[in-house]
Write a structure and sequence with these properties.
The complex is a heterodimer of chains A (906) and B (160).
Chain A: E1 18-23, E2 28-31, E3 34-37, E4 40-43, E5 54-58, E6 61-66, H1 69-78, E7 81-83, E8 102-108, E9 120-126, E10 129-133, H2 140-150, E11 157-159, H3 171-186, E12 190-193, H4 196-205, E13 210-216, E14 223-230, H5 237-242, H6 253-275, H7 279-286, H8 290-303, E15 317-328, E16 337-350, E17 356-368, E18 373-374, H9 379-391, H10 440-452, H11 463-474, H12 481-496, H13 516-529, H14 531-534, E19 548-551, E20 554-557, H15 574-583, H16 598-601, H17 606-617, E21 630-631, H18 640-648, H19 662-672, H20 678-681, E22 700-702, E23 705-707, H21 722-731, H22 744-751, H23 756-770, H24 778-789, H25 798-812, H26 830-833, H27 838-846, H28 868-882, H29 892-905
Helix pairs in contact in A: 2-3, 3-4, 6-10, 13-17, 19-23, 21-22, 21-23, 25-28, 27-29, 28-29
Chain B: E1 3-9, E2 12-18, H1 24-31, E3 50-53, E4 56-59, E5 72-74, H2 87-94, H3 104-117, H4 123-130, H5 140-150
Helix pairs in contact in B: 2-5
The chains are: A alpha+beta (906), B alpha+beta (160).
C-alpha cells in the first residue's frame, strides 16, 4: 500500500514551498504509560479558506498551511477550535520497597530537547517518495514510524539529516512527522520551523516518558531496577495524536541498554559518594568479569584517574571527572562474551551560564570473545555527539535572560529548489555504528556530580537545566515560618533605616577572572541597558560620568563607571555592585537617586548581573571625579531615599508570565529590566516615582524631550505594528514613522549590538502593550491618505510657510527626491500629532543626529539661524499643515524660549 | 573622535581621518581640495554644496561623512570626461547660465542628478528640481534655459 500523493506538478517548483504551523491540544502529556490528551471536538476548517489558509486535521492532530510562516502563525492563533477537557490525572503509585535499602528515582525524557533553534524541517513528496530536509536524525526507526503514520513503505522515505547518534530523541522527529502530514495534505513541500512553541512544549509533555527506580544495599553490591514505568522509545507526537501508533514502535534495544546503564552507573556513583569510596575502585570491586576489570583499569590508567583535573584558575568554571562502565551481553548470552565499555570524561561547567563542555573523553571498548579489543576509541566524534545531543540542546524554552546567538529567522538556502537526489535504493543498510554508546549519558552525569555536587537523575544536561540546578543548590533550605517572619520584619526595618553599612572595598578582580563568554554576555547587558548613554558626558570619554540630568528636584550628575579605585567602581565588590543595582545603595552605604534606574535593574537576573559586573570591571580604569550634584533642600538629604524606596521600589526579581510565550517573556525581561524603557516612557508622580495603572507607559517628558506613549494611546498617524516597531528599534527608522532622535538615538545604537531575536522580542512585547497587530495591510492606505491631506497649504500661516520654504522644504518637500531628502513624510511623524510640541522644537533647535544609525542623513541645528519668533511661526505652520485634524499647540513661544535656554547652556 | 574613513570620490579611493559626523562638504573641500562644491548656508537650504551620491543629488553640507563611506561620490570635478565637459556643463556654457557663479555647482549637479533619474524630464520637472537651489544674482532665466538645453528641450520647454 502506498498512500503517498502522486508527483506534484513540476511547474510549481519555484514557489511551491508552503509553511506549516501545528496546533497542539491544550492538554497533552505522556506520564509513564499514560498518554493524556484533550480531544478535538470541533474545528471550522473553512474559516480561513478565503485567505488561502489550508487547515489539516487528522484525529487530534491539527495544523495550518499558508504561503508564509508569519501568515501560518497568525492563522494558527485565530483558527476557531474546541477541545474537550481530559480526565483528571491518573496517579500511578509505585510499589513500596523495603525501607533499609538505598533507593533512587531516575527519569528518561521522551525528548532530550526540542532541537537546534531556530531551524527548519522541510517535507516534500517527490516521485512517489517522501524526502525530509533539516536537522532530522536519519534513523531506520524514524523511517518506520513515519511509514506507519503515512501508512506507507519505509523504503520510500529519505531523510537528509545526519546519521542517528543513538543517545536520545529530539523534537525534530516531531517536526518531521508534522511536516510530512501537512505536506501530504496540501500536495506541496511544507516547511515547519523548530520553534519553542510547540516543540519545547512537546519536550515538556514527554519529559516523564520513562521512570525508573533503583534500590540496592548500602555498599551497592546488590541492587536492582525495581520499577520500569513507561516507554523506552517515544515515537513522534503526530502518531499519538492521530491514533496510528502501533505497539511495535515502542521498543528499542539500544535505547533500553543506554537508559539502563545510565540508571545503574549513576546509582553506583551515588553509592560511592555515600560511602566516600573511589568510584573506579567501587566498580572494580563490583565487576565480576575479568576482561571488564582489565578494560576499566586500563582506561582509568590512560585517563590519569586519581590525578587532579586540569585547572587554569578561572573563577566562573568548575571542573569534574566521572566514570561509567557497561556490559551488554551478546545475543548468545554467554557469560564471557558481549560488549564491555568503560568511559571516563572530564567536564567544565560554567556556573554563570550553566554551559557544560566536555574537556576530555577517554573511552575503551572490548567485544570479548566475539570481537576485537579497542582499548582506546577515537574520542573526538564521541564527545562531539555528546556535546551536541546532551549538553547544548535547549530542553526548555529559552529562559527570559538567555542571550540568543545573533542569527536570522529566515529559511536557510532552500535545498528543495534544486532537484533532490533520488531516495536511497531499497535494501541499503544504514551505516552501523560499531561503538556502543551505553555509558555515554552516565559518564557525563557522574562528571557533572563531581564538578558541581548536583546529581542529575535525568538527561539532558542543557545549560538552562544545569543553571537552574546550580541556583537551586545555592538557595538556603526551608526555614520555619517565624524565622521567615522575623527576616521580613528585619528587612522592612533595614529598608526604612536610612543609614546602610558600607561594603568593604576590595581589589579589582584580575583581568583574566571572567571568561570571554561571560564578558561578551556582560557587554550585551550593558548595551541593552545603555549604561554608556547616561554615564558619558557630551563629547566625553565613555563611562566616565559627568553628564547632567535636570530633574524637578535639581541637577544630578552621572558618576564614573570605569574601574578606577578612587573615583570609579574599581574597589566595589560584586556584593556592593549588586546592592547598588538592585537597591540603589552605593558601596559606601549612601543612597543613590532613582535617576539611576535601579528600580528597573532590580529585575536583571543574577547571571546577567554577574556578567555585567565582570564586563565593567574588565574595562580600562580612568580617574574622573563626578561633579557635585546641585539638588535643592530637602532633596539633597540622601537618606530620605530610604522612605522613597519603601514606598515606591519593588526589588523583587523578574517573574516570567507562564501564560505568555517565551518571546513575550524575553521581551518583557529586556524591556522591564536592563532596558529600563519605562524609566522614560512612564510619567512620574510628585515624588519622581513611575506611576502605575493606566499611566504606565503613557508617555512622559524626559530631559526636554517627550518619550511618546507605548500604549494603545499612541499618536502615530499610521499606527504601529509589531513589524514596524522591530524596524524602528533595529534600524532607527520605520517607513511610515519618523526616525529615532533625541535620547532614543543612542538607545537604537545600543540595540543594534543585540542579537536580532532579542530586538524582535522587545518589539513583540511593546506591540502587546500597544495592542498593535503583527502587520496591518490597511496601514499603507491610511498613511497615503494622511500624506495627501498634508498637500493642502493651511490658511493664515504665511509667516511659517515662508520659513518652511526657506529652511525645510529643500529636504522635506518630496517634489524631486534627492539623496539627502527626508525619507519619511512629515505628515506621518508622530511628534507633529502629539499633544505637545517639545520634540518638534527640540529637533529644530538642535537638529536630528542619528549617529550610529547607518545610512541616515543629519538634520542640521537651526538654533543659531532662526529666531524664537520664526521657530514659533514654523511650528504652528507644521502643526496646521501636517496634522490638520489636531488642535493648534498652545504656549509654543514659552516652550521655545525654555528649550532654547537649555540649548544655550549646553 | 577621529576615525580613518575610506571614500570613493570621482572614481578614486581615498582615506581621510575625520570625526564620523563631519559634513562631507568639509572633507571634500578641506581634505581632498575639491572646491567645486561650495559652502553656502551650511544648513541644506541653498544647494551650493551639491554633489552626487550613487548618481543622485545630495547636499554635502548636511551629510555626515560616515553615511557615505561605502558609496560612490561625484563632485563637479569628476563630471567631465577628460577634456570633454559633461553635456550639462556644456549646456550651461552654451547658454551662459551664470552671473557670479557661486550657485553654479549646485545647479549643474542638480540637473545631472535629475537626468540620471529621468533622462527626458519636462520643463516643470526641471523647475521642481531646481526649486530649492538659490541664486542671488537673478540669473534664473539663463539657468533654466541651460537646464532645458541639457535635457534636450527648447527654451520654451518643447522637445527640440
Amino acid at each position: 500500500m502506498n498512500r503517498f500523493p502522486d508527483n506534484r506538478p513540476a511547474d510549481q517548483d519555484n514557489d511551491a514551498l508552503r509553511y506549516g504551523v501545528v496546533i497542539r491540544p491544550p492538554v497533552y502529556r505522556l506520564d509513564a504509560r499514560a498518554f493524556v490528551c484533550s480531544q478535538l471536538l470541533h474545528v471550522d476548517r473553512e474559516a480561513l479558506a478565503s485567505e488561502g489558509i489550508t487547515v489539516v486535521t487528522d484525529g487530534n492532530f491539527v495544523g495550518v498551511v499558508a504561503a508564509s510562516h508569519e501568515a501560518a502563525r497568525q492563522a494558527a492563533a485565530r483558527l476557531p477550535l474546541r477541545w474537550s477537557t481530559p480526565d483528571r490525572d491518573r496517579t500511578t503509585t509505585s510499589p513500596t520497597v523495603a525501607e533499609q535499602r538505598l533507593r533512587r528515582d531516575y527519569q528518561w525524557p521522551g525528548r532530550l530537547g526540542w532541537g537546534a533553534a531556530p531551524d527548519w524541517v522541510i517535507a516534500d513528496f517527490i516521485d512517489g517518495g517522501l524526502r525530509l530536509d533539516g536537522p532530522v536524525a536519519n534513523s531506520e526507526r524514524l523511517r518506520r514510524e513515519l511509514a506507519c503514520l503515512l501508512e506507507s513503505d519505509p523504503q520510500r522515505i529519505h531523510v537528509d539529516g545526519d546519521a542517528e547518534a543513538g543517545l536520545g530523541r529530539q523534537g525534530s522527529d516531531d517536526a518531521a512527522a508534522d511536516a510530512a502530514l501537512l505536506a501530504r495534505a496540501v500536495g506541496r513541500p511544507v516547511a515547519v520551523r523548530l520553534d519553542p512553541d510547540p516543540y519545547a512544549r512537546d519536550a515538556g509533555a514527554l519529559a516523564r516518558a520513562r521512570r525508573m527506580r533503583v534500590s540496592g544495599t548500602a555498599d551497592g553490591d546488590d541492587f536492582r531496577v525495581d520499577d520500569d514505568l513507561g516507554y523506552v522509545s517515544v515515537p513522534p507526537l503526530a502518531l499519538w495524536l492521530t491514533g496510528r501508533l502501533t505497539d511495535g514502535l515502542l521498543s528499542d534495544p539500544d535505547a533500553a541498554a543506554l537508559q539502563f546503564t545510565f540508571v545503574q552507573e549513576s546509582f553506583l556513583d551515588e553509592v560511592a559518594a555515600a560511602l566516600g569510596e573511589d568510584p573506579v575502585a567501587l566498580r572494580l570491586r563490583h565487576i565480576k568479569d575479568p576482561r571488564g576489570k582489565q578494560l576499566l583499569s586500563s582506561v582509568a590508567d590512560q585517563a590519569g584517574w586519581g590525578k587532579p583535573v586540569e585547572d587554569d584558575g578561572r573563577a566562573d568554571l568548575v571542573r569534574g571527572r566521572g566514570v561509567a562502565y557497561s556490559h551488554r551481553p551478546s545475543s548468545s548470552g554467554d557469560a564471557g562474551s558481549g560488549t564491555r565499555s568503560a568511559w571516563i570524561a572530564d567536564v567544565e561547567v560554567n556556573t554563570v551560564t550553566g554551559g557544560v563542555r566536555l574537556s576530555r573523553l577517554v573511552a575503551g571498548q572490548d567485544a570479548g570473545a566475539d570481537g576485537p579489543l579497542s582499548p582506546l576509541l577515537d574520542a573526538k566524534p564521541l564527545s562531539d555527539t555528546l556535546e551536541r545531543k546532551l549538553l547544548g540542546l535547549p530542553a526548555t524554552p529559552p529562559s527570559a535572560d538567555d542571550w540568543a546567538a545573533p542569527g536570522d529567522r529566515q529559511l536557510p538556502a532552500r535545498q528543495t529548489s534544486v532537484p533532490p537526489a533520488p531516495p536511497r535504493p531499497a535494501g541499503t543498510p544504514a551505516a552501523t555504528d560499531p561503538v556502543d554508546l551505553s555509558p555515554a549519558v552516565a559518564v557525563v552525569a557522574n562528571a557533572l556530580y563531581d564538578a558541581t555536587g548536583v546529581r542529575f537523575r535525568s538527561p539532558p544536561f542543557s545549560p538552562a537545566r544545569v543553571r537552574a540546578a546550580l541556583q537551586q543548590q545555592s538557595r538556603p533550605g526551608k526555614r520555619r515560618w517565624w524565622w521567615g517572619g522575623a527576616v521580613a520584619v528585619a528587612g522592612l526595618l533595614a529598608t526604612l533605616w536610612p543609614w546602610r553599612p558600607s561594603i568593604a572595598p576590595v581589589a579589582r578582580p584580575a583581568a583574566n577572572l571572567y571568561s570571554a563568554e561571560t564578558l561578551e554576555r556582560g557587554r550585551l547587558v550593558a548595551e541593552a541597558g545603555d549604561c554608556a548613554v547616561c554615564h558619558t558626558a557630551e563629547g566625553g570619554t565613555v563611562n566616565l560620568g559627568g553628564r547632567p540630568f535636570e530633574t524637578p528636584f535639581g541637577t544630578l550628575y552621572s558618576t564614573n563607571l570605569t574601574p578606577d579605585p578612587d573615583t570609579g567602581i574599581g574597589n566595589w565588590s560584586y556584593a556592593a555592585f549588586e546592592r547598588a543595582m538592585r537597591e540603589g545603595i552605593g558601596r559606601d552605604g549612601r543612597h543613590l537617586y532613582p535617576a539611576f534606574p535601579y528600580t528597573d535593574f532590580a529585575k536583571i537576573s543574577d547571571a546577567d548581573m554577574q556578567a555585567l559586573y565582570g564586563y565593567l570591571m574588565a574595562q580600562p580604569a580612568v580617574a574622573a571625579p563626578a561633579p557635585q550634584n546641585d539638588l535643592r533642600f530637602p532633596f539633597n538629604i540622601r537618606s530620605m531615599m530610604a522612605g522613597w524606596n519603601f514606598l515606591f521600589h519593588d526589588p523583587s526579581p523578574f517573574k516570567p508570565d507562564p501564560t505568555r510565550s517565551a518571546q513575550w517573556n524575553r521581551g518583557a525581561y529586556l524591556f522591564e529590566g536592563a532596558g529600563h524603557c519605562g524609566a522614560c516612557h512612564t510619567p512620574r508622580n510628585l515624588f519622581g516615582a513611575e506611576k502605575g495603572g493606566d499611566a504606565r507607559l503613557a508617555g512622559a517628558l524626559v530631559d526636554g524631550w517627550e518619550a511618546p506613549a507605548l500604549t494603545a494611546d499612541s499618536r502615530a498617524p499610521a499606527g504601529w505594528t509589531e513589524q514596524s516597531l522591530f524596524e524602528y528599534l533595529r534600524t532607527g527608522r520605520s517607513e511610515l514613522h519618523g526616525v529615532a532622535g533625541g535620547p532614543m538615538a543612542p538607545v537604537v545604537a545600543g540595540l543594534a549590538e543585540l542579537p536580532e531575536d532579542d530586538v524582535r522580542a522587545i518589539a513583540h512585547y511593546v506591540a502587546t502593550q500597544m495592542d498593535a497587530p503583527l502587520s496591518d495591510p490597511a496601514r499603507a492606505e491610511r498613511a497615503a491618505a494622511v500624506v495627501t491631506a498634508s498637500q493642502v497649504e493651511p490658511v493664515g500661516q504665511e509667516a511659517g510657510q515662508r520659513v518652511f520654504e526657506g529652511a525645510c522644504a529643500a529636504c522635506h518637500e518630496n517634489g524631486t527626491a534627492t539623496f539627502t531628502s527626508a525619507k519619511q513624510a512629515l505628515a506621518l511623524n508622530t511628534n507633529l500629532h502629539s499633544q505637545r510640541p517639545d520634540n518638534v522644537i527640540q529637533s529644530i533647535l538642535g537638529g536630528v543626529h542619528a549617529e550610529g544609525v547607518a545610512g541616515t542623513g543629519e538634520m542640521p541645528a537651526f538654533a543659531h539661524s532662526l529666531s524664537d519668533r520664526q521657530i514659533v511661526d514654523l511650528v504652528q505652520y507644521l502643526r496646521a499643515r501636517f496634522a490638520p485634524g489636531e488642535t493648534p499647540w498652545k504656549e509654543v513661544g514659552k516652550t521655545v524660549a525654555d528649550l532654547r535656554r537649555e540649548h544655550d547652556q549646553q | 573622535m577621529n576615525q580613518e574613513l575610506h571614500l570613493t570620490v570621482n572614481g578614486e579611493r581615498c582615506a581621510v581621518r575625520a570625526a564620523p559626523s563631519t559634513p562631507l562638504l568639509y572633507v571634500l573641500r578641506n581634505d581632498l581640495c575639491l572646491n567645486g562644491p561650495k559652502f553656502g548656508c551650511g544648513l541644506g537650504e541653498c544647494g551650493a554644496c551639491m554633489v552626487l551620491v550613487e548618481g543622485r543629488a545630495a547636499r554635502a553640507c548636511v551629510l555626515p561623512v560616515s553615511a557615505v563611506a561605502d558609496r560612490r561620490i561625484t563632485t563637479l570635478e569628476g563630471l567631465a570626461d577628460g577634456d570633454r565637459p559633461d553635456p550639462v556643463q556644456q549646456a550651461f556654457i552654451d547658454e551662459q547660465g551664470a552671473q557670479c557663479g557661486y550657485c553654479l555647482n549646485g545647479m549643474i549637479m542638480t540637473v545631472r542628478g535629475l537626468l540620471n533619474d529621468n533622462p527626458a524630464p519636462d520643463r516643470d520637472a526641471l523647475v521642481a528640481a531646481l526649486d530649492h537651489n538659490l541664486c542671488r544674482c537673478g540669473t534664473h532665466q539663463e539657468i533654466l534655459a541651460a537646464a532645458c538645453r541639457a535635457a534636450g528641450l527648447s527654451d520654451q520647454g518643447e522637445p527640440s
